[in-house]
Each structure stands twice: as structure tokens, then as C-alpha cells.
Amino acid sequence: MFNYCPSCGSRDIYFDNIKKFRCKSCDFTFFQNVAAAAAAILEYDGKIIAIKRGQEPQKGKLDMPGGFLDPKETAEDGLKREIKEELHIELGKLKYLGSYPNIYKYKGVLYNTCDLFYYSKVDTPPADFDRTEIEELVLIDLKKIPVEEFAFESTKVGLRYYQDGYSV
User: Fold this and answer.
1) According to the model, what pLDDT value does residue 10 have?
2) Helix, strand, or coil here: 36?
3) pLDDT tens digits, residue range 61-115?
4) Residue ranges making up the domain that contains 66
5) Nearest in space to 115 (alpha carbons), one of 142, 82, 75, 84
6) The pTM is what?
7) Which of 31, 65, 79, 101 could be a cystine partner for 38, CB 3.0 to 4.6 Å?
8) Is position 72 within any domain?
9) Same-domain pairing of 83 and 27
């Protein structure tokens, strides 16, 4: 990630292969911490609302609506913001399902993420959506979720957990 220390310019940088970069010359330390994201299993009329990704990474693959959290934002507030931006709907009550680690490759850089999953029922499906991020909305029968067609491993784990009897 670094060729030179951002503080002193030294090339004597050490990476611990997990998250910490340290300059041996000036002791500057940079932590590459986990990014947080939230997604929702939105149920409508016995189906879940999935999206077909309109952007890389994994453009064209299925995903759950959601996105990355902003600084100083709770997971719930960030998820509600993302759903409002992407699907133009307001979410009500959220039920937390779990969190799963993921690796998100964006423009050649691997980001470690912690993806938090929630469940919510919606009264009506979205009438419109953000076409810059979403290629298509897909309604999927709750009993026939094609887990392997989803873009990210964390989503597959979350959907399997949901399928394996999580009761809402």
C-alpha cells in the first residue's frame, strides 16, 4: 500500500500482514482497519427484494440492497440512508440477523469489510430505483433463493443463515 512513509518519506516500511503499517525510521503507524457495510433482506409478499448490481465490483450479479456506512453513522441509520438513496423507500423496523467478514475488491485494492445484515418487511416493492448503482430489481421467492448467484461471500453466508430457519 505504501512505498514511502507518509510522515518522513523513508522507504523502511513494515507491514504486519494483517492491518498495521509502521515506519521503522520515525515510528509512524497507519492502521488499515475494517470497513463497515450494512445490507437488508427486504421481504415483500413472500419474496425478497434483491438487486442486480449496476457497477463493479461484481457488476451484473445479485446483491442485497445496502452499502458502506459513513463515519459517525450507526449501522441502522446507514442502512436506512442507503435504502432511501438506492430504492427510494423508507424502512421501518429492522431486525438484526448477524455480521460476516468479507473481502471487497475495488479498482484492484482489496478491502476487508464487516458486513452487517438486517431483515425488514416492506408493504410495497420499490416503484423506482437508482439506475446508476442498480441494473435491475429482482423479486425472489423466499423458498427458492439462488444463494450461489449472489456477488459476495458474506451475503451468501447471511442468506444461508436466513434460509436455515431464522424466524422473524
Assistant:
1) 96
2) strand
3) 999 999 999 999 999 999 999 999 999 999 999 999 999 999 999 888 888 999 9
4) 35-163
5) 75
6) 0.86
7) 79
8) yes
9) no
